[in-house]
Amino acid sequence: MTGEAIAFYLLAAVVTAFALGCVLASNIVRMALCLLGTLGGVALLYFLMAANFLGAIQLIVYAGGTLIVIVFGVMLTSRAYGTKLRVRPLEMIGAAVVTLALLAGLTAILVRTAGPVVSPSTPDFGVAQIGTELLSTYLVPFEVISVLLLAVMIGAAYLVQPEKK
Amino acid sequence: MKLLLANTWLPTSAELHLFSPELVLTGTIVAVLLVALVAGRRPQLSAMIALLGALLGVLATAHVARVVGDGGLGGLAPPGEPPMLIADRFSVFFKLFLFVLLAAIIWLWLTGTIERRMRATSRPVGDVGGPEFFVLLLTSALGMMLMVGSLNLLVIIIAMETASLPSYAIVAADRRSRLGAEAALKYVLFGAASAAIMVYGVSLLYGRFGTLDLGAVAQASSLWSHQQDAGATGTDWLFCLGLAALGVGVVFKIAAVPMHYWCPDVFEGAPIEITTWLSIASKAAGLGLLLRIVTTLGGAAAGGTHHTELLAWAIGILAAVTCTVGNLAALRQESVKRILAYSSIAHAGYMMMAAAILVAPAGTAANVGISAVVAYLLVYLLMNVGAFGAAALVTWHAGTDHLSAFTGLGRRAPWIAVPLAVCLFSLVGLPPLGGFAAKWFLLVALGTSAAAQPWLWGLVVIAVVNTAISLYYYVRIIRQMFLTDDATLPRLQVPFGGLALVNVCAVVILLIGTLWFSPLGERAGRLASNLYVQPTPPALTLQP
To answer: pLDDT of A13-58, one tens digit each?
Structure first.
């Protein structure tokens, strides 16, 4: 077993453990903490696959940005802070059945599938090349996302603006 | 230092011309925002600008329609790359459809503000409007146009989000309405879950085929099927799973079973203009995307493979279940908005039936299913704008959309009751109305394709049985309007704009059912011909 494989399995185990913790914890702050572990672990997995840019983005956007927003949300809504989120046994069983079936199905399919039909293009992308691609090949999605973000910002502001009179 | 920009590809002006409707719409969004900045928050001014933008969009689309030749054009990608956006007659049809609908919705909103001002003293009707409202409405329209105008999975995902996210916000546009807030929350949770599943499916497809271009995915998949020539029964499960997960997102937009639970609650809670918009535009865009995906996969498979057959079966079964569930659930509703919501689920089911045709083996008329859906959507637009518009006029007046608000409408407001009855009978599909023409073309399409896929006869039977079931709940509304009366109820004073909209819809429905019956079929057939096909398929290197 190479060092890379060992690192992968270790990291994968850590990510899985944190993900399980996030689902099974009943305290919302602990959930957020476990989510941090999961997202950080995935970032490390990206680094391990030499996708440095993706790893950095994962850390900045998810582990950094999104999670802080979630924690702020939890802390600011004082009622949710400290309350235990309980799941009824029936819901637990239902969720377990669905997820286990999904896991079994996905594993079966992935084991059966030999690999990609078409080999993907070379993945040695640097930041400069990603930037160039964003403004050439992926210009349309890039521009549409800008419009989308503008609309989402306006929508959020619209929903929270105070009521007149 | 290298000058990167000099080497970078930039879109040509011919390409930008081709996508001028989208650019006009984006320009309108900016104009609505900037004018509000200068002239202050005047909802009616914003509405006027949005209406002007929609009309300009119609002109731009008409211009594109002349440019788009046979087979359509793709563009906005560097040379050698598959196109990011495409323009063919099918996408031009959807752009026109959405612009006309946008204009109708804004017209309905303008009518509504007059109505609201008239009874500002009597009861608090929610204040829905402002520049943000129109920005969100226009952005969701932009997303829907892009959904039907691309074969790139990344653009499709972003387009669906652009259609969805603003819709979540405008559902809660009336901030005093608890029902609206609840509807928006349900919508956003359902939408987020289905979007997540869809993105996962696309990631599986990308992992399998190494490309985001749907055309290339279709070719790789059909090539794979033909390589497994041992009876062509080998199933590429990863491909099927990816496609199914992608389908979850599409089915959510169409509000077909099993992703239909959000639909009645959202339609009931949203302002009625938005209900009208979502019930037509969201479904149309979802159906357009579904047809695009199915024809691309079926077209590349040339003669049909095991996978396209599976896909056709899946769509057929979903369609049958969808229209049956929609019609049965509608029977027990008391709210007219909810009845029309379930009716729209049922109609989505009818239209989905046509999508099951498209993967028929060669020999049947090309794209007969698409032309049936195009004809159906045109009539559906008129029927739903008419029915929801009439319901809106009554709802604004009575403050509720309960069935009892329609009591004696035949006496109290004949100019609403008669067109509403026409629209409802047309939704049933009775001759000589447009709805009959729509159902006729659909059933004929199913019947002629049944030569190759005999199980399509099953769908024909289900559609006919469902039509009979649906008669009950549509006639319930008509009965409430004409056969029950309460002499104490006063006559309705309604704004002229609303009456004009509803009556124009009813008249056009009548005309389609009689004089324009065969022109409708011909037009639809021409719009459905010549779908965009990638001219140069990318070279594939297959791995076993």
So the answer is: 999 999 999 888 887 788 888 999 999 999 999 998 888 888 999 9
Q: Return d(Cα B279, Cα B101) in angstroms, integer.
A: 11
Sorted by where each begins, the domain ranges of chain A are 1-108
This complex has an ipTM of 0.88
Q: Do A148 and B165 touch (CB under 8 A)?
A: yes
Percent of chain A with pLDDT over 90: 33
Q: What is the 3-class SS of B390-457, one letter each residue?
A: HHHHHHHHHCCCEHHHHCCHHHHCHHHHHHHHHHHHHHHCCCCCHHHHHHHHHHHHHHHHCCCCCCHH
Helix (H) or strand (E) holding B16: helix B13-18
CA distance B246 to chain A (A): 15
Q: Are A117 and B543 an interchain contact pair (Cβ–Cβ within 8 Å)?
A: yes
Which H or E run contains B235?
none
Nearest CA in chain A to B81: A137
Question: What's the CATH number for A1-108?
Answer: 1.20.120.1200
Q: The dihedral of CA B219, B222, B226, B227: what is its sign?
A: positive
- pTM comes to 0.92
B213 forms beta bridges with B152
Among residues B387, B389, B405, the alpha carbon closest in space to that of B397 is found at B405
Interacting residues of B278 by C-beta distance below 8 A, sequence separation 6+: B167, B171, B266, B267, B270
